[in-house]
Amino acid sequence: MSNERLIYLPLGGAGEVGLNSYVYGYGQPNKERFVLIDLGVAFPNMETSPGVDLIFPDMTWLMKHVKRLEAIFITHAHEDHVGAMAHYCDVLPVPIYVRLFTANILMDKMKDLGKSVEKIKVVRRWTDTIDTGSFRVRFLPVSHSIPESSSLVIESPGGTVIHTGDFKIDPGPVVGAAFDVDLWKNVSSKGIHALVCDSTNVHSGAAGRSESGLAPEIESLIKRAKGMVIATTFASNIARVKTLADAAVRAGRSICILGRAMRRMVDTAVRVGVLTDFPKTVSPENARDIPRENLMLIVTGSQGEPRAASAQLSRGKYMKLEVREGDLFLFSSKTIPGNERGVLQIINQFSNAGVDVIDDSFPHYHVSGHANRPDLEMLHQLVHPKIIIPMHGEHRHLREHARLCRQNGYQSIVATNGTIVDLSGDVPVVAGYVETGRDYLDGKVKYSARDGIVRERLNMAVNGHVSVNVVYSPRSKPTVQVFLETMGLSKYGRSGLLDRELHDQLTVTIKAADRSVLENDTALREVLEHTVKQTCRAEIGKTPTMIIMLNRLN
Amino acid sequence: MSNERLIYLPLGGAGEVGLNSYVYGYGQPNKERFVLIDLGVAFPNMETSPGVDLIFPDMTWLMKHVKRLEAIFITHAHEDHVGAMAHYCDVLPVPIYVRLFTANILMDKMKDLGKSVEKIKVVRRWTDTIDTGSFRVRFLPVSHSIPESSSLVIESPGGTVIHTGDFKIDPGPVVGAAFDVDLWKNVSSKGIHALVCDSTNVHSGAAGRSESGLAPEIESLIKRAKGMVIATTFASNIARVKTLADAAVRAGRSICILGRAMRRMVDTAVRVGVLTDFPKTVSPENARDIPRENLMLIVTGSQGEPRAASAQLSRGKYMKLEVREGDLFLFSSKTIPGNERGVLQIINQFSNAGVDVIDDSFPHYHVSGHANRPDLEMLHQLVHPKIIIPMHGEHRHLREHARLCRQNGYQSIVATNGTIVDLSGDVPVVAGYVETGRDYLDGKVKYSARDGIVRERLNMAVNGHVSVNVVYSPRSKPTVQVFLETMGLSKYGRSGLLDRELHDQLTVTIKAADRSVLENDTALREVLEHTVKQTCRAEIGKTPTMIIMLNRLN
Asked: Do A551 and B481 touch (CB under 8 A)?
């Protein structure tokens, strides 16, 4: 038994933003029994994944070893941790352990997809202990930007690991319990072998600020406002929604929540009891009758999502509510890198409508949900493990976090997706690599990012498209007819209509072709492709994608 | 003659980033004679303009009134001010007045496109005066981030306007003359009617910093570096390239410039005499033989452009030079909003290669080329016009700038692209609107953004594509054959191969169709489209773009 080992294997989230998905295993090499922590999504963009609905971690490795999987644990209800779960619960035949709030969010998703929710096991309190094959797991509460976020304390014969999940150290999180230093001390006092730790804010040098510090600033801003106030934040940031709502009430305003995701989060939080004393809200219909100076909208779309409430309001109206000159729009959020363009578009549209916008260049109205560098160091000290493995971050975050750990005397390495880390000894050792990647949900189907489908789309988007169709009728005198259409290409080239020029050149090519070429699909396709390429290059300076259909009639 | 008027009409750059293009006119309404200031480009992106090479201002209005155009003036050689000039010089039959450095940059562009450069008129010194029909124009030097930037002093019977172009107030710009407060005072002492003013940094509340302040910080950073140092900045920021090069020399390093655009800028600056004492550089070939700790690369690609030197180095090598663990990469630049994703990718790739990256979160290694809010106010006071019109900025910048001006007692309005502003009186008056937009250069052709070509491309990128082709042979017994191919779509749907299912459903549709449908192109096309849509929705949950070719054989 001496060769049993404790391993850590990130399948997503280590070296990228989103897709959090981490495996721990214990047992003899290649016979380890596994637990999976989180199964999140990432969001597509036009540059790399046009038309895709959601991005999932590559499940190939996990499916191959699914018989060795014992259980799944979800740390919290953010999309990048729970978003893929409902899409794969069918094929992962193990219990899913979650806290109550997360359970409700996940159940809604599973019901939306028509999935059975019976695998969901609610963990009621931190002292609840889940025993899987080799692991004993508990949910250790942490503060973050969504209720009931948890670190996981994972005991195994190879030592105890704490997997932080997303966290910050907040003594006043507004919703839910404060970060419990004594509890963490107590848990850590038994000796923690390894800490696998959130790296998001390792580059932020100032100590983190508390959620509770925002209330006075937000209240004072709303009180100074003359027209309607609209505030946006992440739909799941229940604490912030509460802070905004409370401030509005104190400023004598009625509250209206716009956006299904936020409404759902608030309702769920109230239902499960993590959100209490939430002020009464008014419906969008009733909001229309309230004087603007007595109204505050709390809305979705803080990242510039074009169909969310913020963007729709900036373009005109949403649910028949509209902005006017003199209104105030507050981003109580930070723009996630990559979303700047959409957010700026909203800001400029509001500017055009005469609405004043407070964006994330003002630090007073938003705090991060992740631990800044000094808070990371504080947690390291509190837990005082032998080994710290940075997770949840791009490569630059993991690298800087590992450097910080080593500076402070901990063993640490950068382990990106697919790295099997042997945590059995005093030093983390890379024990191998598995292939990882991304899967796409696109409409109703899933496929691998490696399948080339999205590459074809990007290629069409950049280069335009030509469909050519040649009909070959081998009658007494063989006749060949050419048909074609373009899409996403200039109608005119240097010589006039592009279609006509292509048609003429293709006809010339076919007339000039030997019978041996005409009767050989591969050869004919080749000369037609060549003609399309040459003609398009000469006419419009582009090489389009093309579909060439050779139709040989009987 | 009393109804003659002085008008200002932005065609690009007012309410957006890039595409700077401003018209001034003087004369009776609708008979004004015009001058054009700048003709810049903007850069495409995958979200809104995939496959496009360059974006130009919509030239429709200008071409319609080209006979009333007297002259063109280019304030400086940045792409967003001069980039479109070479593409339209043929159709704008008027002289182009520029300073010597700008002239050389523009001439290179025109020669690249095979255009005659004879229209270019070099303005040697600030006292040179250009008389057009109604205007007398002089180039008033300003500091900015490229040599020989100029404001324009535009005298007319309706009063004098100063058009700032891009500027900052820099007493030590490293290359070129310092901002000359006395000269500006002198010019302004004769009474300036209107100031049309750069708005880029109106939201930056701190006083601007001087280019010359960077040298000590950069030098100290390079001296501390152990491996190779690579620094990137905007190719045209000659002053910064010099600061970087001088610092490298003082730190005992040889300099190698990588990237054609930067090499060209430096060579031009040396040739025309605006850049003196530039240190000797080594070629990439020779750089390979220099010990890493004695080498500094100054490279293009500060905005994450995937084909520029920075991105290529981050992915492996460029010109056979490669980075190694322990090297240092410095962004001596700011990431322009919208470019974050590309820049972060480079940073993470360098991180993966063990290279330390100093990005724009460190303020010590870059200063902006635009006047911050206090400097704008200083210029307003210095010039002390009756009217200030904000230009060069998104709507949020123009609006904030106009507000600032009004606060300080100036007449001001927000005039976005297409707004004709009558500047004749003491108060600016909106006298009308002209339609403006964007034109695209795509390969060898230009077309309007309104033409729908790019919309088709985005549609293909998001929804994928199906080409269907139906061959109808009206022989003794009519036969209909269906051929199809997809692009950018999942190969498999719910029932198996998507192609096969589409083929089957289309065949069923055709078999079921009445003769009246089969013989009517519109009707047949409609049922085929409907079948493709329904089948794709059912199979893969998407509605692809499609080309349907109906081939009726004789």
From this structure: yes
